[in-house]
Specification:
The protein is mostly helical. It is built from four helices and four strands; from the N terminus they run ββαββααα. The strands form two sheets. The chain has a two-stranded antiparallel ribbon. A hairpin with a 2-residue loop joins strand 3 and strand 4. Helix 1 runs parallel beside helix 4 and helix 2 runs antiparallel to helix 4. About 9% of the residues have low confidence.
Amino acid sequence: MHYAGAPLVSKATATSGRACLSLAVVVVLTTHLEIDTSSLEFLGISFSESQLSSGTFWVQLILIFSLTLNWIGDLISLAKWNSSMTSKGVATLFGGGGTMKGRLEFVIEHLERAIDPENEIEKGNLSYVKRQLEEINCSLWWHEKYAILYVVGLHFLLPVSISLWAICELI
C-alpha cells in the first residue's frame, strides 16, 4: 500500500516481518504436527532437539526485535507523512494543521471566504469545488482506517503474535 507515492511499510519491515512470521509458522506447525526433528542435519552436522529449540528461540527473539525496530521507524515516518495515526500535526507549507483532514478543512474554509456573493459564476464553481473536497474528506476516513489495519495489524501484530506463540511452544 502506498501513501503520497511512497510505501507505508519499508522493505526492511516487510522482510523482517516475513522472516519472523515464516520461522514462527514453521515452529508452530512442527510442534503441533509432532514432526521428529531429532534426525535433522545441516551441512552434515546433526543437532539435538534442545540445541535446535534453543537456537530457534534466540533467532525468533532477534527477528521480533528487528521487526519492532523497523516497524517503529515506519510508524514515525507515517506520522511525518501527516496520516491520522498521530493526533499532532507537523508544520506544513500552508496552514491548516498537519493531518490531511486538517489541510482539506483549511482549503474548504478559504474557499468559503473566497466566494463573492455578486459573482454567481464564480460562486457556483467554488461551491462545486467545496462539495468535491468535502467528499474527499469523507473518503479519507476509510483510507486512514485501512492504513492503520495494514501497518499495525498485518505488519506488526500478526507476525509478533504468532512469533510469541512459537516462543511459547519452544519453552
